[in-house]
Write a structure and sequence with these properties.
This protein is mainly β. The protein has 2 domains: 46 residues, no CATH class; 90 residues, Sandwich (Immunoglobulin-like). It has 1 helix and 9 strands. The longest helix has 20 residues. The radius of gyration is 27 Å and the shape is flat.
Length: 171
């Protein structure tokens, strides 16, 4: 929250400068939310719907595909990525310096030409998604599998990152 002073003329004031200071509260986040809502409404009025598909746009939105769940177990991490329609041979999974990168390509159907579509809502194209893992992993013990539209990556923690019990000596 930001408080700013606004000087206003006050008519009918005989003493002093004839001006008073008004303190107003201003919340930048509510203003940004209002701007976003106004822009969404403008686009929906002009086009009737959202004119783009976020998953395959360049920039920030493309880094959100595929959607992932990351969970931690005692021995490592499990990453499950939602990627229906991607062939397993089109995935590339890499690990470097505790950063997991999922990349690949979702290809368009080959049996329909683009001119034949009346409506096309399914996205296709290349994607890259990088996730920083919260702890050190062993890059030699990473397993990936794909079934039912889900890419599952199991990453084992490195021995140095696993918790160890330290005995306490008495003096």
């Amino acid at each position: 929250m930001v408080v700013y002073a606004q000087i206003q003329n006050k008519r009918g004031t005989r003493r002093g400068s004839g001006k008073e200071v008004v303190m107003t509260n201003w919340n930048v986040f509510s203003e940004m939310d209002k701007l976003r809502t106004d822009m969404d409404r403008l686009f929906s009025e002009v086009t009737g719907s959202r004119p783009w598909r976020l998953a395959f746009l360049p920039g920030i939105a493309s880094r959100r595909y595929p959607l992932v769940n990351v969970s931690e177990t005692e021995g490592g991490y499990k990453v499950v990525a939602l990627a229906p329609g991607v062939q397993p041979e089109n995935f590339e999974v890499t690990v470097k310096n505790n950063i997991l990168t999922l990349s690949g390509e979702k290809r368009p159907p080959e049996d329909v030409s683009p001119d034949e579509y009346h409506r096309s809502e399914r996205s296709e194209g290349r994607f890259v998604r990088s996730l920083e893992l919260p702890g050190a992993i062993d890059p030699d013990r990473v397993k990936a599998s794909y079934a039912n539209g889900l890419l599952t990556v199991i990453l084992e923690k490195s021995e140095a990152a696993k918790p160890r019990a330290i005995p306490v000596d008495t003096a």
